[in-house]
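Section handout, structural biology tutorial.
Before the tutorial, make sure you can parse a SMILES string by hand: atoms, branches in parentheses, ring closures as digits. In the record below the ligand is fe (ii) ion, and the chain has 386 residues. In the tutorial you will relate the predicted structure tokens back to the input. Do not try to memorize them.
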Amino acid sequence: MITNGLVPGATPAAASGPEHVEEPVAYDAILLASFGGPEGQDDVIPFLRNVTRGRGIPEERLEEVAHHYRAFGGVSPINDQNRELKAALEAELARRGIDLPVLWGNRNWDPYLRDALAEAHERGFTKLIAVGTSAYSSYSSCRQYREDYAMALAETGLEGVIQIDKVRQFFDHPGFVEPFIEGTRDGIAELEARGIPRARIHVLFATHSVPTDDAVRSGPRDRDFGAGGAYAAQHLAVAEVVMREVGEGVGWDLVYQSRSGPPTQPWLEPDINDAIEELPAKGIEGLVIVPLGFISDHMEVKWDLDTEALETAGEHGIDAIRVPTPGVHAAFVSGLVDLVLERRDGIPTADRPALTELGPWYDVCRPGCCENVRLGFKPALAGLEP
Ligand SMILES: CC1=C(CCC(=O)O)c2cc3nc(cc4[nH]c(cc5[nH]c(cc1n2)c(C)c5CCC(=O)O)c(CCC(=O)O)c4C)C(CCC(=O)O)=C3C
Ligand SMILES: [Fe+2]
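Predicted structure of the complex:
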């Protein structure tokens, strides 16, 4: 258990992290913002059209993804997971005596962000703090949320009436990382208990692939994070923290999953299945898959990892374990509440917990953060433009 907000031996809020804190704001409510997913077979195609409108996703890819949802009765697990997260946040807020209602709205399916804003307006709320179910920086995980907040305000005519701020990207917040540390420790221990020595165990940290064009533009325009941009750098930094804590003598890599888009468009690689195929030649017998890019066990986890990647491992004679996502882990829920409070109270950067030298991340995104050149410029909240 992390007690002081920092993993022992990990880097505290580093002087090199961004110095960027906003004034305190008396928020009226929390806006839990998520992706959304279908809740029955009839929703599958309309949902996929919502997600991919204007994106140039090939028809075959849509059919393939529709099949994943169909295999689960047309119901994405993500909605129930968000209902549970909302209830857990409410319970934690009540436990701490904090009077902040939680509203829930999605980018791509019912209940939509615009529904949550309409409810906020009815209840007389004018200052919302958004908590997105997305920890890292990239167009899909940062800017697209901010564009959709702006669009939902425009759709409801509430521009200038309701203010929406967001908590920082929380990839290196202890509440998000601790469940992965625990899961990785347990996964390695379980494989050892099955008789596999540490030298023959490998850890693959899995996250969603994104177009390399998006990856290089992730994070602020004026900071250089290397080839995969802030997106890859943040994942690598968090994976290093996890391995430093519990991975002594065990090898690891960062790998990608759920690639979409036309085959001509480069996306981040290697794919997790390709990486698994290489493991037997390296003498690996046991594999721990850490879904580092994800908050809950939604379809990308249930299908791409639990169905496909575990099958690939089995085909190659590798004993594999997929560790849990943060879900409603107590540390994660309480960390999200801490993120809201640090923002509400304007806690200085130096007092904000962050386990990597990249953070604590910005309250307000810097100019050009997480741009998408393919889709062009769209207005976004909670960032400094242009
Ligand atoms: C970085 C990232 C995250 C992690 C951050 C975060 O969590 O926000 C994420 C999460 C998710 N992605 C999800 C579902 C989908 N993503 C798609 C398409 C895409 N994802 C992309 C990126 C990401 N996606 C990208 C670059 C595309 C190409 C189209 C585009 O440029 O936007 C498509 C269309 C079909 C396809 O192309 O695969 C679907 C159905 C669900 C819901 C799962 C459920 O229902 O349980 C979740 C949580
Ligand atoms: Fe996605």
